[in-house]
Amino acid sequence: MTRKLVASEPPLRLLFHTALFGTLALTPLLPLHWDGRLPSLGQGLLIVSLGVYGGVGHFLLIRALQRTPASLLSPLLYVQLVWATLLGWLVFAQLPDALTMAGMLIIGAAGLSLAVGARAGGLAG
């Protein structure tokens, strides 16, 4: 959706609506995962920093999609899967479970099939 909306919407509006809809969609799920304990000051700062980093990252993605064709950016987005796995292993000593790995493989295979299909369609035409 971001790729389609960058042509008609300003970056800050896109960022605001993404954050708003994400908050509205996920807040009802909070009671399912929160045990009632408040985070410590350090944990709270980490949570806030996560929001800031995520917001800045999404803003930069919006700006990149405004200036660069999505076909050039897509391979960089798939690298996120590699980095998430690597950092999860290095920082938290945790590797993805089988279901997560299956999802990552499906995402990668779908992207690869789109790239191959677009290349084959471009060669045939």
Automatic annotation (TrEMBL):
A GO term from the CC aspect: membrane
InterPro entries found in the cross-reference section: EamA_dom, EmrE-like
EamA domain segment(s): 2-109
Residue ranges crossing the lipid bilayer per the database entry: 12-34, 40-61, 73-92, 98-118
Keyword annotations from UniProtKB, A to Z: Membrane, Transmembrane, Transmembrane helix
Full protein name: EamA-like transporter family protein
Species the sequence originates in: Candidatus Accumulibacter adjunctus
